[in-house]
Amino acid sequence: MDRSRGVRSAVIVGAGVAGLTAATALARAGWQVEIAEVGPREAPSGWGLCLTGPSLRALDELGLADACLAEGYGMSTVTHMDVTGKPTGEAQLPRLIGARRPAMVGIARPVLHRILYAEAARCGVEIRHGVTVAAADQEGELVRVRLSDGTVRRVALLVGADGIRSSARGQLGLETSLDYHGQMVWRALVPRPSWATGIHQFAGKADTVGLVPLSDRQAYVFLTENGVERSLLPDAELASRLRQLLATFPGRVAELRSLVAASESVVRRPVLTAFLAGAWNRGSGVVIGDAAHAPAPQMASGAALAIEDGLVLAQEVGRHEAVGVGLRAFVGRRAQRCRTLVETSVTIAGLEQAQRHHEAHRLTDSCHRLMAGPA
Question: Which residues touch 356 (CB under 8 Å, ≥6 apart)?
Fold first, then answer.
């Protein structure tokens, strides 16, 4: 794969949210795109995520917002509860794709993956599974990419979209730290209670709990466990331990606790963040999404940044004849926005641990309004 009759080629490492979005945007702009994904073809398992306004705006530009709204759960409000279980306020999130459409959508991860994967394939993207990048070297205007199966590609663009522990980032000689913030996040898939028509967040005396609808029938419960060391628990113990943590909350969390008891999908993950200071690119290679900037989940905007990255990357390399110039323009557009989101998410994590919930809610609301600005 290289320049051929004016068509530029790209290898993208990772078939996640960032990689699939970038692949679709590049393919629509006339690029020949191949994705190398180390995982299997099967859709990822897991709970779900929230596509906030910036996510939907970018997906709407790609013509995919309505598909996500149809298969997810559209909503516009975040309701906050205090430690007694009583509501303290309701935040209305900005509606960025029209006043008659929701501000955000909760959606199951496998469903979002299917939508993005199908669109990339429809646009002619070749998606190869069981392979990743083993080496990357700049050769003039092209990047020589050696994949883990020994095959070699010479392409105009290499995109690392392989997550917070990116191998492509290392192959490009870019380094960043992964920071732990004293929190472990639990998630469990449950039936959606009839009263859950938006996101609900419950402040606790030690931890915080929330509920995010994913469809008419399904939602996920999350619990942020504060002030704990990173640790692993046996899968068989997760559901019972989560029920113990939920037992300290009053009100509607008692209903959520009973739903968790029947859940067959409970996970526990550390809250990690990363931000790649300085350049995200080297030569004709670049990293995007969590490989460049991974926020804490409190802002529910990691997917938004990843989706925006894919769209903006295609725009900037399309505006410039030299790929390297386009990549520098891409990083110039994205770096401060992504840094602000990551740093704000870390501040919110600290406020939660200090039990300063009102301040955390105000900061979250103001950051959502900031993120409503241009990508």
Answer: none
